[in-house]
Specification:
A hairpin with a 5-residue loop joins strand 1 and strand 2. This protein has a two-stranded antiparallel sheet with strand order 1-2. The protein has 11 helices and 2 strands.
């Protein structure tokens, strides 16, 4: 004979409920547990008083894996990247792997050739660049898409069956996709090149000294907000490519664009962008005119302002 508790469910159902609520946020566990016990008890009762244990087991079997049910209640996917985002993930990953990765690899291999390294060393260095940079691209893009996947909202309540009415409205192809993917590739390339020139020290003087192109002193301060802004722009480009423009994304874009543009403009205004040793070796006695830096600063600020305005306009379209 089945031993039922006050809620009308047996020991097996209590174990099932406990397993479900174990995988959902603590603040919802009580309500979900009460709802599940009531559903189980009502369903078992509707099947008649005879064979309560068998009926309860049958009901739990129909409800399915408690972990999957918990995912529905928690509004949290069980996969890292779901089918809705996977095509965009593959498309963006392919773009990065055929643009950023070859450029950095080719530059690294060219430096090895200029240094007089043998074919085996050049090939080995290129392979190492492909593996290390490629792995980082895959890892970080996967992290961004996994976070986007978990930030989405479900259109149906837990347990609701899909209906044709749930289909989204048809929309015209998004012409902005190409520009968005180009933005991801461009910002990723800038980020990779800044880090690469710091580690590879690609500039060579006549006496064989290896130098960074950018001022090494930047790594003690101003380069970090520039890198953070670039990383933020890459992440926002990815999210906008898969979710579309929103006002919240436009606000975050302002923050990321400011973190990238303002420190960069300040560095150039103070003429602290390039390594002084590189400028001295490359220019000789010729000094870069101040007007050059002024024009570059204005172009950077205007470009940043134009991007902010364009993102805000997208939210009204």
């Amino acid at each position: 004979m089945s031993m039922l508790d006050a809620s009308g469910t047996g020991e097996l159902a209590d174990r099932y409920v406990a397993e479900v609520v174990r995988h959902i946020p603590a603040g919802r566990r009580g309500d979900v547990a009460d709802e599940l016990r009531g559903t189980i008890a009502d369903t078992v009762e509707a099947r008649g008083p005879a064979g309560a244990d068998a009926a309860e087991r049958e009901v739990l079997t129909e409800m399915g894996d408690p972990v999957r049910l918990a995912a529905l209640y928690a509004d949290r996917p069980l996969v890292l990247i779901g089918p809705e985002l996977y095509p965009a993930y593959v498309r963006l990953l392919r773009i990065l792997l055929i643009t950023v990765l070859p450029v950095v690899t080719a530059m690294s291999a060219a430096l090895d050739v200029l240094d007089g390294k043998g074919a085996a060393a050049v090939i080995g260095g290129a392979a190492g660049t492909v593996l290390s940079l490629g792995a980082q691209m895959i890892a970080w893009l996967t992290v961004v898409f996994a976070l986007v996947e978990r930030s989405g909202t479900r259109s149906a309540a837990p347990g609701t069956a899909w209906k044709p009415d749930d289909l989204p409205e048809r929309s015209a192809p998004k012409r902005r996709d190409a520009a968005l993917y180009a933005g991801v590739a461009w910002h990723s390339l800038l980020l990779a090149l800044i880090v690469w020139q710091h580690t590879a020290q690609p500039y060579r003087t006549d006496d064989g000294t290896h130098l960074e192109v950018l001022d090494p002193g930047l790594w003690s301060g101003w380069i970090w907000p520039v890198l953070a802004g670039l990383a933020g722009l890459v992440a926002l480009d990815v999210i906008r490519a898969v979710r579309g423009p929103t006002r919240l994304l436009a606000v975050w874009n302002i923050a990321a664009r400011a973190a990238f543009t303002l420190p960069l403009a300040w560095i150039l205004y103070r003429q602290e962008f390039f390594d002084p040793a590189v400028l001295s070796d490359a220019n000789g006695d010729w000094q870069t005119p101040d007007a050059f830096y002024t024009v570059v600063v204005l172009l950077i600020l205007l470009g940043g302002a134009r991007d902010v305005v364009r993102r805000l306009r997208e939210t009204r379209a």
